[in-house]
Design a protein that fits this description.
The protein is an alpha+beta fold. It has one helix and three strands; from the N terminus they run αβββ.
Length: 86
């Protein structure tokens, strides 16, 4: 009886070694981030001392100055798992 068990165990061991592993693994997910970041800035100052009429000073336009800035971002996120893209 023990000889049959040993032979059966050896046969199962050989069959187990010769078979290829067939473990299914899920594909690794990937995430891609693409985009654009845009910065615009402007500084200005009115150097004019006079309005349109020659020789007529205009106190409301003499010292206008300022600063303007804008930032914007446009991003695209892409996720993939195997052949599925979202």
């Amino acid at each position: 009886m023990s000889r049959r068990l040993v032979v059966l165990f050896v046969v199962l061991l050989v069959v187990g070694i010769l078979t290829a592993p067939s473990f299914a693994q899920a594909p690794a997910p990937t995430v891609t981030i693409n985009g654009l970041v845009d910065f615009v800035t402007t500084a200005y100052r009115n150097w004019s001392q006079f309005s349109g009429a020659p020789g007529a000073p205009d106190p409301t336009t003499g010292h206008k100055e300022g600063w303007y800035s804008r930032e914007r971002g446009v991003f695209t996120l892409t996720g993939e798992v195997g052949r599925i893209t979202f």
